[in-house]
């Protein structure tokens, strides 16, 4: 529960912080977010058999949903600091706003399984 509150607090903080022009990592469409093709789609984690959290990856956005709350990272990335690295099995991105950075690391386990490493624990996600 503590992790959930910290994640939500960080997301709200990123929304309220001012613009930071320190990053220029953009793709050819002008969007900073450019996930690899293998991760595109909706990925959901489950807690006691119930959908708990999800990440939806598109070619130009990442949306995190938890407890009825959804957060698009596109605005934050386009107007703040954003960097990403990707391979055939890993996708890592960092959002920075107001001097605070948060890194997200996803690792492909199979075509339908994905692990999210938040630095203290690993959560498994299933592709929908």
Main sheet attributes: strand count, strand direction, barrel closure: 9 strands, antiparallel
- In angstroms, what separates the terminal alpha carbons? 24 Å
Number of helix segments? 2
Any idea what the shape is? globular
Helix fraction? 10-25%
Structural class call reads alpha+beta
Described by its quaternary structure, the protein is single chain
Instruction: Tell how many strands the DSSP assignment holds.
Output: 9
What is the H/E string? HEEEEHEEEEE
Mean pLDDT: 82
Which percent band covers the strand fraction?
A: over 45%
Cα radius of gyration in angstroms: 14 Å
Please describe what this structure looks like.
With 128 residues, this protein is of the alpha+beta class. The protein has two helices and nine strands. Strands 4-3-2-1-9-8-7-6-5 form a nine-stranded antiparallel sheet. The chain is globular. The chain starts with a helix and ends with a strand. Mean pLDDT is 82; it is low at 1-29.
Which labels suit this protein?
45% strand, disordered N terminus, nine-stranded antiparallel beta sheet, single chain, 128 residues, alpha+beta
Strand and helix map with partners:
Blueprint: H1 2-16, E1 41-47, E2 50-57, E3 62-66, E4 69-72, H2 74-79, E5 81-86, E6 90-97, E7 100-108, E8 113-117, E9 122-127
Antiparallel strand pairs: 1-2, 1-9, 2-3, 3-4, 5-6, 6-7, 7-8, 8-9
């Amino acid at each position: 529960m503590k992790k959930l509150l910290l994640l939500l607090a960080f997301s709200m903080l990123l929304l309220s912080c001012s613009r930071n022009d320190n990053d220029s990592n953009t793709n050819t469409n002008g969007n900073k977010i450019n996930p690899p093709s293998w991760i595109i789609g909706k990925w959901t984690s489950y807690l006691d058999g119930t959908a708990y959290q999800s990440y939806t990856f598109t070619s130009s956005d990442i949306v995190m949903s938890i407890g009825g709350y959804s957060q698009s990272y596109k605005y934050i990335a386009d107007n703040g600091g954003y960097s990403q690295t990707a391979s055939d099995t890993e996708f890592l991105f960092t959002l920075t706003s107001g001097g605070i950075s948060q890194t997200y690391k996803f690792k492909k386990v199979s075509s339908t399984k994905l692990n999210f490493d938040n630095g203290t624990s690993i959560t498994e996600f299933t592709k929908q």
